[in-house]
Amino acid sequence: MLKREQITANLTTFALIYTSYTLYDDIIVSRRNPHPFMRKVQIVILFLSIWFCSSLFGQNMEPIKLANPSFEDFPRHSQPPIGWYDCGKPGETAPDTQPGSFQVRHTAKDGFTYLGMVTRDNETWEAVAQRLSAPLEAGMCYQFRIHLTYSDEYFSFSRTSEQNEFFIKPVKLRIWGGNSYCDKRELLSESELVKNTNWKEFQFHFKPKRDYKFILFEAFYKTPTLFPYNGNLLVDDASAIVPTGKCDEWDEEIMDDEPEIIASDENVNVKPKPVKPKPSETKPDETKPDENIVVIPPPPKKEPKIMKDLVIEKVEEGQSLRIENLNFDTDTFNIKDDMHPVLDEIYSFLKNHNNVSVEIGGHTNGLPSDEYCYWLSDRRADAVTKYLIEKGIPEDRISHKGYGKTQPIATNSTLAGRKKNQRVEIKILSLGG
Is 432 within 8 Å of 357 (Cβ atoms)? Predict the structure, then answer.
């Protein structure tokens, strides 16, 4: 389907060419001068008109097609699909042509294979790039679509721990424009964190500030991030990069097959209608207050203590207390905002009793594999430990350990029991007395 700008440009070009031709033909014919030289002049003027109109209205509105947009190749690890250039960190392995490596088993969205990229806990991440068939033009606006997902099973080697670990934390896709392979001159767009385990179409809009001949895709951490982590991103079925002309027409220029979004409570923030207060039925008290009366404000309301047993008079060496209200999202170890109150209670306890040393222990339910349980419980305990250290607790007073599923406190055959087993505890190692 032709865009509005294309149709307008074509009609305008045709009209100018036709007008130029008839104008100069009338001049020459009316003067009855069929001299061959003048006819040649007429032809030259005609072609100059065509060239002028093409340069004036001929902004490239053709889609920019990518080479191998379906990422097809032989499945193999540490080798990106043909047509895509490795732009990862030196000394690290290249992205993969999936499926089949590192326990990744997704079926391709289009064709037979797709691109797999990872982020690592040693502050390196993977990226690929290619030269575009036509440059992105400064000031032009473009739409682009690509299908993304991530694998909840991705087992690979970590240079930080020097052992195999799960790379299953969601990451995002960032798209860069540049003028050579691996040149990240301008960040054109980025996705949200890709948390879906089935293929999902992501749409991007970008307006480059300069002309760019290369495009780069990279997997990247959640931002802002406190520390790097092991994650993965699967990429398939990229569209052409479609020029849309004026940026203020993005809302009108919907790409073909764009899914309809139906308003609901989940995707629409409904702002309540302001209610106009009713006028008071009673007249305000016109008497002036006594200036000699001193009004004492009530004391601030004290929030109830979350960990009521975390009191120096109650705890003993060797005692373990479950950290309440510490609810991690499934398969993650991110410290969320709603965890801060209880962690700040622990921080205050350790700050006020500077002879106390503790261990933060992570525990899981009994369903996943032993390796995964040890890994996840250790990362959660480590996240709590880092939070307290960054608040100011000395490192020599706090340690962490992942116990996996080795110390259940309830049955794993029920949901309630598994929730009890999936916990983080603080263990009093020494009271310093």
Answer: yes
Report the number of secondary-structure helices (H) and strands (E) in the chain.
5, 18
Quick count: other Cβ atoms within 10 Å of Cβ 221?
21
Rounded alpha-carbon distances, angstroms, from residue 304 to 314, 330, 368: 18, 28, 36
377 phi, psi to nearest 5 deg: -65, -35
Residue 103's region, left for phi above 0, alpha for psi from -120 to 50, else beta, is left
Residue 307 belongs to a domain: no
Q: Does residue 235 contact residue 184 with C-beta atoms inside 8 Å?
A: no
Amino acid at 428: I
Strand pairing partners for 144? Answer: 204
Which CATH number belongs to the domain containing residue 346 in this structure? 3.30.1330.60
Cβ(171)–Cβ(380) below 8 Å: no
The answer to whether the CB of 117 falls within 8 A of the CB of 86 is: no
Segments of 153-289 assigned E as strands: 155-158, 163-166, 169-170, 172-178, 186-190, 200-206, 212-220, 231-236, 242-245
Is residue 119 in a domain? yes
pLDDT tens digit sequence for 193-252: 999 999 999 999 989 999 999 999 999 998 876 678 999 999 999 999 998 875 544 433
pLDDT digits (tens, 9 = 90+) for 68-115: 999 999 999 999 999 999 998 888 899 999 999 999 999 999 999 999
Residues 52 and 123 in one domain: no
User: Residues 163-193: pLDDT tens digits?
Assistant: 888 898 999 999 999 999 899 999 999 999 9
Q: Is the peptide bond before 224 cis (omega within 30 degrees of 0)?
A: yes
